[in-house]
Specification:
Elements (H helix, E strand, L loop, with lengths): L1 H8 L1 H6 L10 E2 L19 H4 L1 E4 L2 E4 L10 E7 L3 E9 L21 E7 L6 E7 L5 E7 L4 E3 L7 E6 L3 E9 L12 E12 L3 E5 L15 E5 L9 E14 L9 E17 L2 E7 L28 H4 L22 E9 L2 E10 L2 E5 L6 E5 L3 E13 L2 E12 L2 E13 L4 E13 L2 H5 L3 H6 L6 E13 L3 E10 L15 E13 L6 E14 L5 E14 L3 E13 L16 E16 L2 E14 L4 E15 L4 E14 L2 E16 L4 E14 L15 E16 L2 E13 L7 E12 L2 E2 L1
Parallel strand pairs: 1-14
Antiparallel strand pairs: 2-4, 3-13, 4-5, 5-11, 6-7, 6-12, 7-8, 8-9, 10-11, 12-13, 12-14, 15-16, 15-40, 15-41, 16-17, 17-18, 18-19, 19-22, 20-21, 22-23, 23-24, 24-25, 25-26, 26-27, 27-28, 28-29, 29-30, 30-31, 31-32, 32-33, 33-34, 34-35, 35-36, 36-37, 37-38, 38-39, 39-40
Length: 763
């Protein structure tokens, strides 16, 4: 609380400060309403393009931020009161080297890419990002300059085409103004923009219309001011998207000859999006289909005590999700599994930003945090989930935010209150602070369903009240940066709508890096060294871990990166007395250390690969002893042509103790995609996992608990047609097979077929 009072005291002073980032080179987007109807074909034949604002794209901003690019790139912008039109003419001296294939949305990175970044409020807080590859495949996202993050979960309704020419390629974009939040003030509006070209050859160049400097962490703050949109009508667009979802699922027990048991389900759902004004949006959903159409990326969880994070993909929650973002992840909507209905209101009025959402959930899934591990728990019955956010930006360099979340069910509730502030002291210095407080009541039955630390964390016979805070200071120069960050969470702090798997936990982190850039690169472009130190304890101050990490990174031709890293870590093992949450006197301390190598290269236009290898002595959590661990991750992506793409990722982890095997775990994730065009694809996904254990090398008692061999195979065949984010058609088949010590051959125990159709009417 003291840190927040200190920042509040600075508010009057901050209002007097001159903005750190002066606005110069003010441009104006012309309004063109006469002429033939615009046809997006990549030709730039319409006369409107000759009258459009022309913006050269020639500043090198990465890897060097000095000089101008040798390739010609020109941008064109105009609007007609309803739509913002953008074109980029990108020349290339060797068009045969252009990297492009038909891609699914947000999968274009690694190709040649051009695009627009637009800060519609001109307040250096957020920017829409629209990117296109030479074949018209799209990517969009929202960059949050306050939190320093980007969210590709946002999918807007906009159009783009691309055409490869003898001189290079051209891209045209049509961005409806109704998808943009912007001020409702009458007359000319002042915004900020940047046109960008990514040119991947021996190294990837970032070429910009603005002289972006890497010594300033805030790229949004360095975009070019622009005026326009005086004739833009206040948006009252209404999008109604009904959907039909149907499917059949079959299951059967592994250890018997019982036949398949079938169940089917057909649902009709409705999503509504209403642009009340240009800066206020209402979303509602009834009986939504929140199923995951596409399988999440597979991960090995062996010897990992904490819950894995999976990103949100569902449209209702991804719409304006950044309005609920804070430095701590207090709103992670993957916690909401099966809502019947939901509503959301988001908006921005001058310096004020707000968001509100409310949903029910037929399930009540909880993340039970800890300091040595976390668990997922399930309550019976449904739950209610709410979040309310508000932020105020008195100027471009200072923001204050608040957030309230609540989850409740029968005999259960969790309420979280948060206050945060972000202050750009200068172009090189940023200070952020956040305080959180919570009150939680668990039902008495929950602790009896859990074991170990999770049972003790939920065994309270009264409400739990806890606090936490986070302080972060960052200093950045052209060639180096340094940071110091401190976080603290009380023993009784919970954030059940978010994703914070640690509690009864505090950590001090200090780190920095230095980069040498080679102005005349022959084989190598830059060399970087990094060092980070972490000290982690429980809330009482008892050591959990202390660690030093060091890295050296060398970047060179063919987009190659070579990294060598090492770590030394002192950490505690599992609790000796599992009926106590104490750390001091209740754990043993172990010293882990290891080396790793990472190599990435794109030896030719259509092939990219990376390899990660680690050799380390780490704690075997199952047997509570130091063991030798080897870890290998290999990834290959290959585009056979503009339509066929293959991605293969293999993870191998092996642990040995006293020269004998403890376990070997392998995971292979193969995805083969035929991309018909930018709207449709057919994909085969195969995920294979195999774990083998030498139970003779385990501590007594585990032989009757663990399987000596486990295998699993998940397969999915999916056809997708997506005209826009809410006009989609999916049809697919998936199954799952298992093998273990009781089932000695790989046997399918689940299979399903599904279909979804939704159509969006824009009124």
């Amino acid at each position: 609380m003291k840190s927040l009072r200190f920042l509040s005291a600075l508010l009057p002073l901050s209002l007097l400060l001159t903005p750190a980032f002066a606005q110069t080179n003010l441009l104006h987007i012309p309004v063109l309403t006469d002429g033939p109807a615009m046809v997006l074909d990549g030709s730039l034949d319409e006369p409107q393009w000759q009258q459009a604002l022309q913006v050269p794209i020639h500043y090198l901003t990465a890897p060097l931020d000095e000089g101008k690019a040798e390739v010609y790139t020109m941008g064109y912008l105009f609007e007609d009161g309803h739509t913002l039109y953008v074109a980029i003419d990108a020349h290339d001296p060797n068009p045969q080297q252009i990297r492009a294939a038909y891609r699914n949305r947000n999968q274009i990175w690694g190709d040649d890419v051009v695009g627009l970044k637009l800060d519609t409020y001109g307040n250096q807080q957020r920017a829409y990002q629209f990117f296109v590859n030479p074949l018209g495949s799209q990517a969009d996202s929202i960059e949050n300059a306050v939190t320093g993050t980007e969210s590709s979960a946002w999918d807007g309704h906009w159009q783009a085409v691309g055409r490869i020419t003898e001189q290079g390629f051209r891209v045209e974009m049509a961005i409806p103004l109704h998808i943009l939040n912007m001020p409702t003030t009458e007359g000319v509006k002042q915004m900020a923009f940047e046109l960008v070209r990514f040119l991947p050859r021996d190294q990837q160049l970032r070429i910009s219309s603005a002289p972006i400097k890497r010594s300033n962490r805030c790229m949004v703050c360095q975009m070019t001011p622009i005026t326009g949109f005086a004739s833009a009508e206040q948006s009252r667009s209404l999008i109604i998207a009904p959907a039909l979802v149907t499917g059949i699922e079959q299951q059967r027990p592994l250890a018997s000859d019982q036949s398949w048991q079938s169940s089917s389900n057909t649902d009709v759902s409705l999503d509504v999006k209403w642009g009340i004004t240009q800066d206020m949006t209402f979303n509602a959903t009834l009986n939504p289909d929140f199923s995951q159409v596409e399988a999440d990326a597979a991960e090995l969880t062996i010897n990992n005590p904490f819950t894995l994070f999976f990103a949100e993909k569902r449209p209702f929650f991804t719409e304006n999700a950044d309005y609920f973002a804070t430095p701590l992840n207090l709103v992670h909507t993957r916690n909401i599994a099966e809502p019947n209905a939901g509503a959301k209101l988001t908006g921005r009025i001058e310096q004020h930003t707000f968001g509100l959402f409310s949903t029910d959930d037929q399930q009540s899934t909880l993340l039970i945090p800890g300091n040595l591990g976390s668990r997922i728990a399930q309550l019976e019955g449904s739950s209610q989930n709410h979040a309310l956010s508000y932020s105020y930006a008195p100027n471009a360099d200072l923001t204050f935010g608040s957030l309230i979340t609540q989850r409740s069910a029968s005999d259960y509730r969790n309420t979280v209150l948060s206050a945060d502030s972000n202050w750009r002291i200068s172009a090189h210095d940023t200070l952020s602070a956040q305080w959180v407080g919570s009150e939680t009541r668990y039902p008495e039955v929950l602790a009896s369903q859990l074991t170990g630390e999770a049972a003790l964390r939920t065994a309270a016979d009264s409400s739990l009240q806890g606090q936490g805070y986070r302080l972060n200071y960052l200093h950045q120069q052209r060639n180096w940066h340094a940071f110091v960050r401190y976080q603290h969470r009380d023993e009784d702090f919970r954030a059940d709508l978010g994703f914070l798997p640690e509690t009864d936990w505090q950590q001090l982190a200090i780190g920095g890096d230095y980069t040498w850039f080679f102005d005349n690169p022959q084989r190598f472009h830059r060399f970087r060294i990094l060092n980070h130190a972490f000290y982690t304890a429980n809330a009482a101050g008892d050591l959990l871990a202390k660690e030093i990490e060091s890295y050296t990174i060398l970047s060179g031709q063919m987009n190659s990166t070579l990294e060598l890293g090492s770590f030394v870590r002192d950490r505690v093992g599992n609790r000796l007395d599992t009926n106590s949450l104490n750390i001091a006197g209740n754990t043993e301390r172990f010293r882990e250390h290891g080396l790793h190598f990472f190599g990435e290269i794109r030896p030719q236009r259509d092939l990219s690969t990376y390899l990660y290898w680690q050799e380390a002595k780490v704690l075997d959590l199952t047997n509570q002893r130091l063991s030798d661990q080897q870890r290998l991750i290999a990834n290959v992506q290959y585009s056979a042509n503009q339509h066929l793409q293959l991605r293969l990722r293999h993870t191998h982890t092996a642990m040995r103790y006293a020269a004998d095997q403890v376990f070997t775990a392998d995971l292979s994730d193969v995805r083969l995609t035929w991309q018909f065009n930018n709207q449709s694809f057919l994909r085969l996904a195969l995920i294979y996992t195999q774990i083998e254990r030498n139970l003779a090398n385990y501590e007594a008692g585990w032989q009757t608990v663990l399987n000596s061999k486990e295998r699993a195979l998940t397969s999915q065949l999916l056809y997708s047609y997506q005209l826009n984010p809410q006009t989609v058609f999916f049809v697919g088949y998936g199954d799952h097979a298992l093998e273990n010590d009781q089932q000695t051959t790989l046997k399918r125990n689940q299979r399903s077929a599904f279909m979804k159709f939704s159509y969006a009417w824009v009124l």
